[in-house]
Amino acid sequence: MLRKKPASAGFLFAFLLAGFAIVAQAQDYAREKRWADDILATPLFGDAVWLAQGNGHKFLALHMAADKPRGAVIVAHGRGWSPDYELYGKLRTRLADAGYTTLSIQLPVLDGTAKLVDYIQTYPDARERFQLAVDFLKARGYKNIAIVSHSLGATMANQYLIKTDDDGVKAWVFIGIINGLEEMFRIKMPVLDVYGSNDWQVTRWGADERRLQIMKIRNSEQVVVPEATHFFERKEDALTGVIVKFLDRVFQ
Question: What pLDDT score does 43 carry?
Answer without folding.
Answer: 87
